[in-house]
């Protein structure tokens, strides 16, 4: 039999739009000769719908959409769609089997993830019954996403007579996530002996980005078919017994995958939220250069407007390199000197500051002048301001509230500085859009004479390793020092990370590309007296 997977980019809350796309996919799959079409988790309403599912009008609209799909989809096709199902028993993350003009069966997700970016136990009840159905002479069992990450639900499907396991997913991307998925799927295959069809969502949703990369695991636990990452499409598989023939896409390498994730995240955040384009501040540094390249690749250079805002401390090569890069990309470009505005701020504050020496206050005023200009352009032209700070800066607080942190989407928020360089080189491997001098120059905020990042921070390779250990793996000071890091440096970095929590809470959202980001993943109190052992 021929089975289809609809690897779709769906929009949270666009119930009518998602329904239309699912109906079109169902008709295309039927025309292609598929007997069954599997769509992603919560495909009717998008994922994660978060507290929207608590609204009765929302779940009622989802129910009406499923009934519309059942009535209008080809009657001969078995169509599996995801929805929030409200019943007398509770509220469930569910998958409905539609066939013959009716809702034939419903499966309710059993294992509700409640870790990292997931809090499904907050809104959903847990199901407890298997769901197995016949199609094309094959018995299919349903699990949903988190169900296969734990033993039990797959075995219950097998015991109920399943020959194959169908798994609709909304599994967000992070570095090397495909390895985790393969390992989990193989664990369930060993547990049950069942081949598995893993269908995943694709697209950006706020901080999360979904990579697709759906696959089929055969009865021997081997990858029998692989769909591409970062691409929408209908993909078809011919299955017979425990074997499968289908697409064999090659997944991108690590840096390519991260770059593609950031591009898709920007494209969808801009598009799904209805912005006319983007503005960003171009400094002549590596972070803004990479952000500019990502933005141009995401939405096209004609919708990207870079603004160089030089001060007395801006090096001439920063302006030269910015002009060079915008020509290479073909984006819109403006230069707005901030000296007159900055002088006006300082003049108005002179009486209040009398008797106090210049310090970081004056540096931050420069950044805040730039942030004000960018937000004014955003208001006037209906664009989104992309901030350019990276994870190393967000982690240590090496950023200015209402200055370089001012904006709507933080593209590099989960990208450490060392990876920024890797991504810049990766992008230049496609075509040299970032001037090499930008990559080679020591990074600087250019807010005072001869300033360098390493005046305030440890070398980025050291900083990023310590931050990854502390933020992403929760290692203690002793553990990080035992791994070979200088104790004084470890204590300095951890203190900076802890004290900057209030800044990060006010930062824009940004795409998650590591197993633990600043945002949905890491929820620390701002007011807290706890400090790791820094003695």
TrEMBL record:
Q: Annotated region Disordered: where? A: 505-535
Q: What reaction is this protein's catalytic activity?
A: deamido-NAD(+) + L-glutamine + ATP + H2O = L-glutamate + AMP + diphosphate + NAD(+) + H(+)
Catalytic residue list: 41 (proton acceptor), 109 (for glutaminase activity), 145 (nucleophile)
Domain CN hydrolase as annotated: residue spans = 1-241
Alphabetic keyword roster: ATP-binding, Ligase, NAD, Nucleotide-binding
Which EC class is this protein assigned?
A: ligase
Q: Which family does it belong to?
A: Belongs to the NAD synthetase family. In the C-terminal section; belongs to the NAD synthetase family.
Role noted for this protein: Catalyzes the ATP-dependent amidation of deamido-NAD to form NAD. Uses L-glutamine as a nitrogen source.
Name of this protein: Glutamine-dependent NAD(+) synthetase
Traced from the root, the source organism's taxonomic lineage reads: Bacteria, Pseudomonadati, Pseudomonadota, Betaproteobacteria, Nitrosomonadales
């Amino acid at each position: 039999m021929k089975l289809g997977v609809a690897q779709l980019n769906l929009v949270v809350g666009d119930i009518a739009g998602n329904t239309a796309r699912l109906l079109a996919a169902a008709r295309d799959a039927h025309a292609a000769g598929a007997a069954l079409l599997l769509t992603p988790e919560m495909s009717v309403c998008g994922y994660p719908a978060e507290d929207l599912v608590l609204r009765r009008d929302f779940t009622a609209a989802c129910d009406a959409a499923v009934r519309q799909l059942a009535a209008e989809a080809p009657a001969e096709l078995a169509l599996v769609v995801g929805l929030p199902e409200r019943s007398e028993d509770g509220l469930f993350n569910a998958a409905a089997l539609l066939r013959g003009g009716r809702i034939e069966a419903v499966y309710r997700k059993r294992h509700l993830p409640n870790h990292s970016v997931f809090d499904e136990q907050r809104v959903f009840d847990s199901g407890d019954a298997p769901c197995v159905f016949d199609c094309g002479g094959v018995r299919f069992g349903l699990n949903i996403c988190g169900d296969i990450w734990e033993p039990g639900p797959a075995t219950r499907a097998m015991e109920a007579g399943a020959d194959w396991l169908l798994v609709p997913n909304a599994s967000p991307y992070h570095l090397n996530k495909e390895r985790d998925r393969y390992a989990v799927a193989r664990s369930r295959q060993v547990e049950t002996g069942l081949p598995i069809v893993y269908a995943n969502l694709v697209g950006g949703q706020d901080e999360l980005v979904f990579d697709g990369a759906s696959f089929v695991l055969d009865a021997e636990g081997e990858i029998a078919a692989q769909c591409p990452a970062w691409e929408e499409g209908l993909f078809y598989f011919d299955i017979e017994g425990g074997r499968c023939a289908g697409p064999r896409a090659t997944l991108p390498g690590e840096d390519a995958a991260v770059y593609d994730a950031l591009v898709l995240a920007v494209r969808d955040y801009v598009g799904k939220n209805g912005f006319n384009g983007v503005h960003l501040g171009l400094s002549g540094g590596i972070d803004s250069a990479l952000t500019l390249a990502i933005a141009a690749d995401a939405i096209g250079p004609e919708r990207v407007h870079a603004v160089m805002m030089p001060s007395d401390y801006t090096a001439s090569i920063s302006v030269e390199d910015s002009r060079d890069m915008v020509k290479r990309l073909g984006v819109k470009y403006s230069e707005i000197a901030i000296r007159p505005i900055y002088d006006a701020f300082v003049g108005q504050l002179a009486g209040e500051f009398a008797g106090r020496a210049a310090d970081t206050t004056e540096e931050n005023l420069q950044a805040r002048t730039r942030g004000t200009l960018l937000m004014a352009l955003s208001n006037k032209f209906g664009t989104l301001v992309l901030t350019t700070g990276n994870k190393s800066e967000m982690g240590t607080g090496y950023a200015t509230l209402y200055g370089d942190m001012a904006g709507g989407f933080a593209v590099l928020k989960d990208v450490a500085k060392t990876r920024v360089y890797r991504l810049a080189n990766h992008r230049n491997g496609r075509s040299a859009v970032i001037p090499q001098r930008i990559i080679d120059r020591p990074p600087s905020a250019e807010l005072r004479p001869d300033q360098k990042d390493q005046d305030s921070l440890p070398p980025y390779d050291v900083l990023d390793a310590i931050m990854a250990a502390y933020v992403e793996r929760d290692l203690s000071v002793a553990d990080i020092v035992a791994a070979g890091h200088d104790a004084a440096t470890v204590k300095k970095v951890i203190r900076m990370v802890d004290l900057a929590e209030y800044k990060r809470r006010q930062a824009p959202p940004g795409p998650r590309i590591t197993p633990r980001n600043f945002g949905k993943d890491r929820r620390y109190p701002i007011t807290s007296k706890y400090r790791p052992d820094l003695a």
